[in-house]
Amino acid sequence: MPTPLPPFDLDLLRTFVTIVDCGGFTRAAERLGRTQSTISLQIKRLEDGLGKRLFERKGNGLALTPEGEILFTAARRLLQMANETCARLMEPDVGGSVRLGTPEDFATVHLPDVLWRFARAHPQVNLQVNCDFTANLLDGFSRGEYDLILCKREPQGTSVGTRVWREPLVWAGSTRLLFEPDSPIPLVLAPYPDIYRKRALDALDAAGRPWRITYTSPSLAGVQAAVRAGLGITILPKEMVVAGFHILGAERGLPDLADTEVALYRAPGTLPKAADLLAEHIIRSLEGVHGSVAV
Question: Per DSSP, what are the bridge partners of residue 56?
């Protein structure tokens, strides 16, 4: 008779996923409210139970082993299923409306699956989602038009909002783009008050590089189409660099770009139960980016 597999401990899996999301044991311990030694012991228990190493040293930090990569993908799914099941069993009758504001590109890439899972767990909740530039979302938020907003911002502390995603930014262009190294850089950007537009112009001005705006579009699809046609370069989150695009940098005289982040803001006062549940669901689903783990 085959030896039965050890059962998965969801608490250990949650710790493991948090370490990867946070980029290290120390930050994971802070987020979970535990000591670093407790976190280390939990990972040892998980590795001993599986008989596999999950992390290995890489340079000055740590990275997932091949077995760790497999477990990370599976652990995310298991934790999501557990959260959805608990929501169905413990909050089956939650209803009402939630007004959510979000940047258009973020909503297009990241939110559809997140919102679908929430709607499946809470079918009586009416989601009202509006896509706009961050500055406009913040204006509407200050007027009480939203229960929750996701907004792009410069990295900052946790005194305002909850950071749920960090976005590495890059310059991107297509193979059809031609411009001389010393000529003004042709830019494809969203209109004011887009945060990436401001980031691009500020970075080029600080580096003393002349520029000209050749194409403006309020939508991610419009920006991508213009870049693909070779009309100019743009700033994109690294993971949104699609096929046919190339990341550009110092070889074209372009300055480095610091990360931005996406944060969740909750309206002041007591939120409806449905809004609280959606906020926690978004944070659990989106916080962190899969990658190497630093000590």
Answer: 63
